[in-house]
Amino acid sequence: MAGCDGYGRSQLLLYLEKKGLLPNEESPAMEVGNALEGAVIDLYAKRIGLVAASKKVADSTTWVAKNDTRRRVRSGIMFCTPDALLMAGGAIGANVQVKIVGVFMAKHWGKAGDEDGVPDYVQAQVQWEMHLLNVDITHVVALIGTDLRVYNVRRNQSIGNALAQRAEVFWSGHVLPGIPPPPDGGDAGDILIRSTYPKKGEAKPVSLEDIPSSAAEIVLAAAKRAARAKQAADAADAVLRESKQIIDLAIGNASGIRLRGEGFGLSMRRQKNRGKIDWQSYAMSLGGSAEDAERFRSEPYESVVMSATTHSEKVKDREIEDFLAEIDSL
Predict the structure, then answer these.
(1) Fold classified for 11-175
(2) How far is the C-alpha of 170 from the C-alpha of 224, rounded, in Å?
């Protein structure tokens, strides 16, 4: 929603989640994170000299409350699920957010104790949580490899208010009326299409006149972009194939080549492929038939075949010309 998700999740993906159109599956990374979260909280509490527990400790004691039951803090349409809370005298002293950081995401994290060392997507998350919890600080506890780092992030009310406003706009403008954000080129767009039109392709083709006037201009602009992109991709494929053939001839019988030049690097290597198994012929060799093999065919699926043309075959699209000129200049 804030547009800074570290894993590339978009507003459309969030919309699909809120409408219940995504499978509720735990990814391997989530499984590891959930398994290690409690242990990281225990270690964090130990290092600051406190006790971590799931049940209430005496009000006069400062302790770390683990949210083992994933209780949500809710305010209207907004909610958050704190990993833990630093309790002091019966009140919330700080929010605690745990992150199990994978090897590919470690580069986004700075030195321990540096508030700016927390990635933007984590900043947005904890500002959201502090806004709903009405607390002024979050201890971000990140396990990066075997390095346990603690970052103190202070509340910024302007960011919290802006996030809350965006949430209201998103909820009232998309979720409640059932109007999805536009496709973003990711998997979410394909999920939206399949869930909205499960029997697509059965009706006759449409023309621009059949599309509602409110969407016709958007569709026409998208078609223009698609035509240009398709032509540029075709031109790129031709250039790539020709260039690979030239390099392949230069390699000869060698196993490969590595090239470095100003502004580019390229490596090519030959590899032997085992080839594909003709499972239908294999089944028939065992006494089966072509009909038997058909029983193991996967569910049919649809693909989109696109062709593009310019208004004049003699004049290439400027974007393609620019692309080819850039290739020629290398």
Answers:
(1) Lambda Exonuclease; Chain A (3.90.320)
(2) 28
